[in-house]
Amino acid sequence: MELHRLKSKRIQARSFKQLLQEELVARCRSNPNYSLRSFARSLQVEPSALSQMINGKRPITEKMKMRLGSALGLTTDQLRRLPASAEAMQGHNEIRIQFQQLTMDSFAVISDWYHYAILELTYLEDFKSDAIWIAQRLGITKSEVNIAVNRLLRLGLLKKNEKGKWIDASENGELTHLSPSETSDAARKYQIQLLELSQNAVREIAVKKRNHTSATLCFDPEDLELAIERIADFRRSFARDFQPKKAKDVYQLQISFFPLTKQKDNV
Q1: Helix runs in the chain, H state only
Q2: Which uninterrupted H or E stretch holds 166?
Q3: Which residue ranges in the chain fall short of pLDDT 70?
Q4: pTM more than 0.85
């Protein structure tokens, strides 16, 4: 089943290293007990070697790419079109390489909600620069944490201080270097994930620890641009007003504003 899924799907990864990262995360999501060791076993490679390749600490040779790709069920043609890593694309000039690397990583950061959550976790009083601790606090797998932290560190959104502790190094606008099509795809994926998290919160978290409210109103679509600006202003103001001196948890603020009535051009 796994082999057929990969072989028949359209590959969107920009490199074989990214494909390995995404495949590991996908398997961990479908099975919380799945691990990098399980992934290595299925590929018939040493876990330490696979970990180094996924984290960019060991180059992926063409021979290794073909071997692992074959184990994943990819065709020779698919593998030939896929560079081993971003570093393997040295035929382009340096500026082009840097732009593609930033685009690839920024796309990944925007597409998965826990990248932002990890940055916010660094402000908690009891924060630990430990993948297991982060995985437990966010309810995700250790593999997802390791891959996310690696991306955040390479992007400069996360860094280590003099004591070796991870700290948030992001700034506004740091994640906007994306083409319109990639931003749209990433935004849709990110928003769907947040809606799913919101549904889980309604089912699993006590009302006294959350707030889910809404308002239904008549509205003139011509005022939508102004409404979006007002909502953005509210989000920024809310974030400024509630910056605690001692943070204990990470919360997610969601504001949804969309038409309930069918649009004429969609009827």
Answers
A1: 2-8, 16-30, 36-43, 47-54, 62-71, 76-80, 94-111, 114-121, 131-138, 142-155, 180-204, 224-241
A2: strand 166-168
A3: 1-13, 86-110, 171-184, 260, 263-267
A4: no
pLDDT, tens digit, 9 for 90 and up, residues 166-194:
998 876 434 434 444 555 677 778 888 88
CA dist 35 and 51 (Å) reads 11
* DSSP-based three-state secondary structure for 160: strand
Task: Report whether 200 contacts 210 (CB < 8 A).
Answer: no
As given in the structure block, the two tokens for residue 222 are 């011509």
User: Domains of the chain: which residue ranges?
Assistant: 2-88
Residue with tokens 């978290």: 205
Q: Contacts for 102-105 with beta carbons within 8 Å, 24 or more apart?
A: 102/155, 102/177, 103/177, 103/178, 103/179, 103/182, 104/14, 104/15, 104/18, 105/151, 105/154, 105/155
User: 2-88 maps to which CATH number?
Assistant: 1.10.260.40
